[in-house]
Amino acid sequence: MKHVSILGSTGSIGTNTLRVTSSFPGAFRIVGLAGGRNICLLADQIEAVGPLVASSFDEGASLELQEILRRRGYPLSGTRFVHGQEGMTDVACHPEATTVLSAVTGAAGLLPTYRALDQGKNIALANKETLVMAGGIMMEKARERGVEIIPVDSEHNAIHQCLRGARRPEIRRLILTASGGPFRQTPKEKLARVTREEALHHPTWRMGEKITIDSATLMNKGLEVIEAFWLFGVGPDSVDVAVHPQSIVHSMVEFVDGSILAQLGQTDMRIPIQYALTYPERWPCPLPSLDFFRLSKIEFLEPDRDRFRCLDLAYKALRAGGTSPAVLNAANEVAVDAFLNRGLGFQEIPSIIASVLGAHLPEEASSLEAILKADAWAREKAGELAAAAPRGSY
Ligand code: MG
After folding, report:
1. Domain 2-152 classification at class level
2. Which sequence spans correspond to the domains of the chain?
3. What is the rounded end-to-end Cα distance, in angstroms, of the chain?
4. Separation of 298 CA from ligand 1 center, angstroms?
5. Which of 25, 160, 220, 371 has its CA 20 to 30 A from that of 333?
6. For residues 140 and 149, is the Cβ–Cβ distance under 8 A?
7. Sorting pLDDT into bands at 50, 70 and 90, what band is 392?
8. pLDDT for 393 beyond 60
9. How confident is the model at residue 233 (pLDDT cuts 50, 70, 90)?
10. Which residues lie closer than 8 Å to 200 by C-beta, 6 or more apart?
11. Ligand 1 centre distance from Cα of residue 155 (Å)
12. What is the pLDDT of residue 394?
């Protein structure tokens, strides 16, 4: 039996993870759950799996959660209730967990994921920000502890599959596919006026709000370029991006002999989640086979780097190295939050990130402290710029 803790259990990846684990009765024991503000869903999950430890957003949420469960007759004594960042770390480090599925959004996932690695737990990683911020430290820790980081992100999961049995010198390049997001065909002059609702309408994947906006700006692909750099040890010039609106080819690897391997499948996150949880084995999946004859076409297009500036900003941060990717990530989180909640114009997102990156003097990303310091600096700077920036037109 595999013993799993889930960070971010009430999000899109977390709920899909529980769908996967519950489809194999007796194969998984869910040791810990860390959810956020959705207390009712977290209560349902706790009732269903009976974790040893459960963490929620803050103390108030934890008390409310326990009250809901008490009213439902759930035996509270079997679960330890914790909260906040420390609570999430308790879930990540529970001694009985051997695998931690890390699916918290944003920088909040960094420390708990690092602590879990340090405790020698295998990581099924959906939180790409962790590698964007501190890829060098995380990969080094995984090597030191002899544990695996298996990507859940569909593109990296695809590449991981294509690279089974391959050696690093055999790789010519990685090709990350991108759906292109909801504004793939939106003219540049209209992008400044797109609304929150339009940006949240992703054509192929149903995901959380932050990652959906990142998909609309192509920053998601930019973050994924950095993620691929750390996971697979290839240089920035060996990671390419191809827009592929059908999202059927989840990514590809080109080898030095010109052969290209691609991983294809349904656009359903249960497939990469299951792969990450069962690796190195492959278990049967209840999803129907991909029907080739119903695919209208498979297209590949060059990304428009002029309309979607975030992609090149990510390459720039990766090449600058050190604390630059952490700064890129922090500025992006602040700008996306301002777009979602304070009416910031859509095209102000790349402008703010560019300004913050331009003002940053990168330092060596040699410790989590140095990275978190750069993160805090970038958040403050981006916050000031977002407050002064033009609003969107809605
Ligand atoms: Mg992805």
Report:
1. alpha beta
2. 2-152
3. 52
4. 18
5. 160
6. no
7. low
8. no
9. very high
10. 209, 212, 213
11. 5
12. 45
